[in-house]
Amino acid sequence: MHKFTFIFLFSFCLAVNREEIYDNSYALIIGIDKYQNIRELDYAVKDAEAVQSMLTGSFQFEKDDIRLLKNDKATKITIIQEFSNITKQAGENDRVLIFFAGHGQTEDLPDGGEIGYLLPVNADNADLYVSAIDMDELRKISLRSKAKHILYLIDACYGGLASVGSRGLASTTPKYIDKITKYKSRYIISAGGKGEEVIEKAEWGHSAFTKNLLSGLRDMMADSDEDGIITTQELGAYLRKKVTVDSDNQQTPKVRNLTSDEGEFVFFSSSWGSTILETEPETNGEKIPIYTSTKVITDKKSIESQSYILDLTDINIISGMGQLGLFMDEGKKEIYLDFGTGIGRKTGTKETFIISTVGVMKRHYLNKFGTVFFEYGLHSEYYMYKYENQMVQASLDPNADEIGIKPLIGIGFTSPQKLFNKKVPIIKSFTFGYRFVPKELEKLGISSGPTVALRFGYYRRQYQENYLPN
Which of 111, 119, 373, 441 is deepest in the core (most CB within 10 A)? Predict the structure, then answer.
């Protein structure tokens, strides 16, 4: 039994530490409403502040490592200087995020072609070369940085950016996440292209781009494969779809790779835990990385869970179980109802009995809506067994001889696993308990004593689909 327990626990410990992906996270956030020479915007500053709050609250960015420039502070000289400062500060295993909410402009060249610009607060459309920031300047600055990953999120529309393209490694590439988090990357996602206009609405309190950026990241809605991590390509695909719809086809975000590097900037939630990346058993000779998270939910309302479990207790009892749970304490705890039925064999005989179980259990997660937990609770067990060739059914009377009580304590994990070439959220747990049964049952071979159970099954979390973070 000890050997089996060791193997069971070891299978969950082949993990890559989250901190191996990035050492530090830096951000430069710019929002400009009050332009000096051109039309003002309504929500660019609010967009910038919301992004700053999201990064510190959900994505491990330290407040001291974020530089926020608003309105009159966002001059051309200051922006370029801060671009340079932050990219120089970042080390080889760091990530840098640049967010700009404001106007963009495209200048047509006399012999064809075009140049894209970001407009600082003191920009003048009469002389963009002198007063605005050439988009190609962003690429040059990023190439001078040692940072592993740099991502520009530009809530402005423009054209004329020189880029390599939007393609990277395919998500089906073996060890995909492992590779894109090791290789360098320089990506830009913009709100739209030449001739398009950024759409803002009072009912959103944001632009279409930032509205969906917040829901896609903070709410993890852009995590299309539900592995607990959002790649640049996943975010870009989500924004293209959602912004195009919300803007009534007036703008479509663009995703561009500024270099030929095959890495990607990634987002993982604070609730992803400190040991996330696991390795699945070998498949066709290669190990496939997966993540110990079903779709990670943060800042959600009405979180519920459902599980369908196969329970093997003491080798001689096998049961099918259902679980219905409700999260509490901002996702740190979960209380759930455990119920099911199974079949067992009496000790020392070949005779069988039927067991029905109802119980209440409580889980404590290491992180909000996390993946690793310990649990405890109480089960009531009702027995049906043969006595003198007659089937005796359990009574609902709590004093009946056919009822047993079993307190439990255990540990467990949730993680996606590949079944039939599809990732399925799986829950696994290992529980200890002590069964108390009446003496009448002990005489028949159903005895009191310690129990050990292994549980394995499908696990799903549900929440309000129409909920958007404030």
Answer: 119
Domain span(s) for CATH 3.40.50.1460 in the chain: 15-272
* CATH for 15-272, options being 3.30.565.10, 3.30.1330.40, 3.40.50.1460, 3.40.190.10: 3.40.50.1460
Name every residue whose Cβ is closer than 8 Å to that of residue 129 and which is 6 or more positions away in sequence: 107
The answer to whether 125 touches 54, Cβ cutoff 8 Å, is no
pLDDT tops 50 at residue 466 = no
Tokens (6 digits) for 2: 């000890």
Nearest of 62, 33, 65 to residue 48 by alpha carbon = 33
Which amino acid is located at 208 in the chain? A
Measured from the Cβ of residue 148, the count of other Cβ atoms closer than 10 Å reads 23
pLDDT in tens, 319-370: 888 888 888 877 788 899 989 988 887 666 667 778 888 999 999 988 766 7
Helices vs. strands in the chain: H and E counts, helices first: 9, 25
The CATH classification of domain 300-462, taken from the options 1.10.260.40, 3.40.50.2000, 2.40.160.20, 1.10.10.10: 2.40.160.20
The token pair at 406 is 């079993």
d(CA 327, CA 461): 10
Start and end residues for every CATH 2.40.160.20 domain found in the chain: 300-462
Question: 295 or 134: which carries more pLDDT confidence?
Answer: 134
227: Cβ–Cβ under 8 A, 6 or more apart, which residues? 177, 290, 291, 293, 416, 423
Can you tell me the mean pLDDT for 165-178?
54
What type of residue is 142?
S
Q: What is the DSSP letter of 293?
A: -
Q: Is 105 buried (19+), middle (13-18) or exposed (0-12) by CB count in 10 A?
A: buried
Contact between 186 and 148 under an 8 Å Cβ cutoff? The reply is no
Q: Give the integer Cα–Cα distance in Å for 259 and 256.
A: 9
Does an H or E element contain 179, and which? helix 176-180
Cα separation, 147 vs 135, in Å, equals 19
Going by C-alpha positions, the residue among 35, 45, 104 that lies closest to residue 75 is 35
